[in-house]
C-alpha cells in the first residue's frame, strides 16, 4: 500500500481484526503526523517521500511456530544469521519480522510455564487486551513526535513481552527485523512489561538488503519496569545504506527499578535514535550504552535522554562514535532534573573517534537542571588514531589495517563487553569488516 491516507490505515486495522479503540488511536495519530512538520534539526530527511513508501504488506500465511514451517527464502536468511543455532543453544525465545509481518515465533516451554508472554504485538492486542490497552502509548504517546505518530498510525508487528511478578528470565529473548522489499516502511511496535521484581534481557537485530530506492524504518519501543524490576534492551542495527532509521525508544522506571539500553548502530543511510528513561520512582536508575559507526554517505544522529522525577535516582549515558570516509556522527542528549527530584545523580560520557580528515562529529548536549541537590557530570572527547599508536602496533607484526581495527575495537570495548557473547563476536566482526571498507 503505497502512500498514506485514512483508507490505508483502515485497511491495516481491518486486516488485523482490531477493536474500534485501536482504529480510533491510529486515525488520531495519522492526523497528528500529517499536520506535524518534518524536524529541521538532525539528519537530512528531504528525500524521504510518503508517496514512495509501502506502508503495509499483507501477510501471505500465518506465523510459523515450528522451524519446518518457515518459508525457504526466509529460512535461508535465518541460516545465514545462525538464528536457529542460537535459539537451540542460547536464547530463551525468538520472534522474527519480515517487512510488515512476524513470520516465525517461538518461546521455550520453561518460560511459558512460568507465565511469561513473548509474542508478536498483534497477538498481544488480541489475547491480552486489558494489559495491552493499559500500557499502549503510555510511555510514547502518538503526540510525542512526528515519527512516533507515524508508527502509531501504521504499526505492524514487533514484540509484546510480559514477565510476571518475581520471574527472572536468565537467558535473553531475541527478536529479528528484516526489510526484504524495496521502498518498504517497517513500523514495528514493541512493548515490554516487567512486573514487580521481574527481570528480562531482550535482544534485537536489524538488517536489510541494498536497493537503489530508500526504505523507512520507524519503530517505537516502550519499556515498563514496575517496582524492583529490571529490563535490559540490546539492539545491534546493521541496516543497509538505503534505510532511514527513525526510532523512539523510551522506558518508564518505577520505584527501585532499573532500565538499561545497549544500542549499537552500524548501518542505515541516516539514523535518529535517542534511547531514554523516565526515572519516575524513588531510587530508580537508568543507563544508556551506545555505539555509532558512520561510513561514507551515513549520518548517525544518536545519544540518550534521562528524565529524573523520583528522589535518589541515578543515570549514566556512555556513547562511543566512529566516523570515516566522510561519514558523520552526532551525539544528542538530554538530562532533565526538575525541582523536587532530590539527590538525583547523572553522568554523561561521549567520546568520538575520527579516522580521516573528511569526516565530521558533533555534540549537542542539553542539561535542564532545576533541583539544587542534583549532582551532574558531563565529559566529552574527540580524538584520532595517532601515528605513534599505529607505529607501535605495526612494529609488533600487524598490518596497518589490522592495527586500526584493533585500536577501534579497544575504543568500543566499554560497550561491546556488555553484549552477550554471540552478539559481541558479531559486533567485533562487523567492525573489522567496516575497517576493511566492506560494510555499509
TrEMBL record:
The organism sits in which domain of life?
Bacteria
List, alphabetically, the InterPro entries matched.
Answer: Fe-S_cluster_assembly_SufBD, SUF_FeS_clus_asmbl_SufB, SUF_FeS_clus_asmbl_SufBD_core, SUF_FeS_clus_asmbl_SufBD_sf, SufBD_N
What are the SUF system FeS cluster assembly SufBD N-terminal domain coordinates in residue numbering? 17-174
Any Gene Ontology biological process = iron-sulfur cluster assembly
Please report the stretch or stretches of sequence annotated as the SUF system FeS cluster assembly SufBD core domain.
178-411
Show the Pfam families listed in the entry. SUFBD_core, SufBD_N
Similarity remark: Belongs to the iron-sulfur cluster assembly SufBD family.
Name of the protein this chain belongs to: Fe-S cluster assembly protein SufB
Amino acid at each position: 500500500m503505497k502512500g498514506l491516507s485514512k483508507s490505508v490505515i483502515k485497511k491495516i486495522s481491518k486486516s488485523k481484526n482490531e477493536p474500534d479503540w485501536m482504529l480510533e488511536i491510529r486515525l488520531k495519530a495519522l492526523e497528528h503526523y500529517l499536520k506535524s512538520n518534518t524536524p529541521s534539526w538532525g539528519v537530512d530527511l528531504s528525500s524521504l517521500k510518503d508517496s514512495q513508501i509501502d506502508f503495509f504488506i499483507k501477510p501471505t500465511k500465518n506465523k510459523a511456530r515450528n522451524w519446518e514451517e518457515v518459508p525457504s527464502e526466509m529460512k535461508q536468511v535465518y541460516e545465514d544469521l545462525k538464528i536457529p543455532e542460537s535459539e537451540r543453544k542460547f536464547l530463551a525465545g525468538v520472534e522474527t519480522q519480515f517487512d510488515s509481518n512476524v513470520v516465525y515465533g517461538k518461546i521455550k516451554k520453561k518460560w511459558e510455564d512460568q507465565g511469561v508472554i513473548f509474542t508478536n504485538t498483534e497477538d498481544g492486542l488480541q489475547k491480552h487486551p486489558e494489559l495491552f490497552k493499559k500500557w499502549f502509548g503510555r510511555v510514547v504517546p502518538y503526540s510525542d513526535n512526528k515519527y512516533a505518530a507515524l508508527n502509531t498510525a501504521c504499526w505492524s508487528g514487533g514484540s509484546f513481552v510480559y514477565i510476571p511478578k518475581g520471574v527472572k528470565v536468565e537467558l535473553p529473548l531475541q527478536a529479528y527485523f528484516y526489510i526484504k522489499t524495496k521502498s518498504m516502511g517497517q513500523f514495528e511496535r514493541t512493548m515490554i512489561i516487567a512486573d514487580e521484581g521481574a527481570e528480562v534481557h531482550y535482544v534485537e537485530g536489524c538488517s536489510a538488503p541494498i536497493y537503489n530506492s530508500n526504505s523507512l524504518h520507524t519503530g517505537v519501543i516502550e519499556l515498563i519496569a514496575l517496582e524492583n524490576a529490571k529490563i535490559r534492551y540490546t539492539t545491534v542495527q546493521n541496516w543497509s545504506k538505503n534505510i532511514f532509521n527513525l526510532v523512539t525508544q523510551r522506558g518508564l522506571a518505577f520505584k527501585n527499578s532499573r532500565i538499561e539500553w545497549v544500542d549499537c548502530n552500524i548501518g542505515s543511510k541516516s539514523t535518529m535514535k535517542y534511547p531514554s528513561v523516565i526515572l519516575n520512582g524513588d531510587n530508580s536508575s537508568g543507563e544508556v550504552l551506545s555505539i555509532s559507526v558512520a561510513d561514507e554517505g551515513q549520518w548517525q544522529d544518536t545519544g540518550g535522554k534521562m528524565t529524573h522525577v523520583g528522589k535518589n535516582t541515578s543515570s549514566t549515558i556512555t556513547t562511543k562514535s566512529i566516523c570515516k570516509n566522510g561519514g558523520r556522527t552526532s551525539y544528542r542528549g538530554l538530562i532533565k532534573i526538575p525541582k523536587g527530584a532530590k539527590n538525583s545523580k547523572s553522568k554523561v560520557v561521549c567520546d568520538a573517534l575520527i579516522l580521516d580528515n573528511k569526516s565530521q562529529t558533533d555534540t549537542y548536549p542539553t542539561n535542564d537542571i532545576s533541583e539544587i541537590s542534583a549532582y551532574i557530570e558531563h565529559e566529552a572527547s574527540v580524538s584520532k588514531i595517532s601515528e605513534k599508536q599505529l607505529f607501535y602496533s605495526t612494529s609488533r607484526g600487524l598490518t596497518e589495517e589490522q592495527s586500526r581495527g584493533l585500536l577501534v575495537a579497544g575504543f568500543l570495548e566499554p560497550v561491546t563487553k556488555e553484549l552477550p557473547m554471540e552478539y559481541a563476536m558479531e559486533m567485533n566482526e562487523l567492525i573489522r569488516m567496516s575497517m576493511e571498507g566492506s560494510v555499509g
